[in-house]
Design goal:
This protein is an alpha/beta fold.
Length: about 190
């Protein structure tokens, strides 16, 4: 089976390829010749995943899936949420985003947060949604060299390390994206 993953984010593609069974061939946007910046104008994480999947299906004719992820911080009323990638501006710089978030939290002892990923799958003219959530907290400073995005400042429940300090295998088993992808795989195998 061939499926397009509506992303050119090499880190996300690597994470998802790592989880998929060998009989599913994953194609990126680059693989299908899609170089435009797909609009993410919805005001929800679900909405953005749907927009991206629909864009590829409608404009390129492929069965595909798209994801959108947000970091939701309790004391910031769920921010940055749907705006996680561009929290510190349109340049979408992870270090700038983490810096802004840590500045806004300051020394607030309530660091509770969650990562949420929604995958929209367009397959055989039907759409299916899969959601993965992992709870945890925000650190006071960055730790770790791995991962991407907010990984160096997010510690998931049950661990004493950030996502940036654990292996890809460990992250795939417990992360928000890992949980959503596991649901996607179970559906595809079903």
């Amino acid at each position: 089976m061939k499926l397009v993953f509506a992303s050119n984010n090499k880190n996300k593609i690597l994470e998802i390829k790592h989880q998929l069974p060998r009989d599913i061939e994953l194609l990126s946007l680059e693989d299908i010749g899609c170089f435009e910046d797909i609009p993410e104008t919805a005001d929800t994480i679900e909405g953005n995943a749907i927009l991206k999947a629909d864009y590829v299906t409608q404009n390129y004719g492929y069965d595909c899936f798209a994801d959108d992820t947000g970091l939701e911080v309790d004391v910031l009323n769920g921010a940055p949420g749907v705006y996680s990638a561009r929290y510190a501006g349109e340049q979408k710089d992870a270090n700038d985003n983490m810096h802004r978030l840590l500045l806004e939290l300051g020394n607030n002892p309530n660091r509770n947060a969650n990562f949420k990923t929604v995958i929209a799958l367009n397959l055989n003219s039907q759409q299916h949604l899969f959601t993965g959530i992992v709870n945890g907290h925000i650190t006071y400073e960055k730790a770790g060299e791995g991962g991407f995005g907010y990984d160096p400042i997010f510690i998931p429940e049950g661990l004493d390390k950030t996502f940036a300090q654990i292996s890809l295998d460990e992250k795939a088993q417990m992360s928000h994206r890992g949980r959503a992808v596991a649901q996607l795989i179970a559906f595809l195998k079903g």
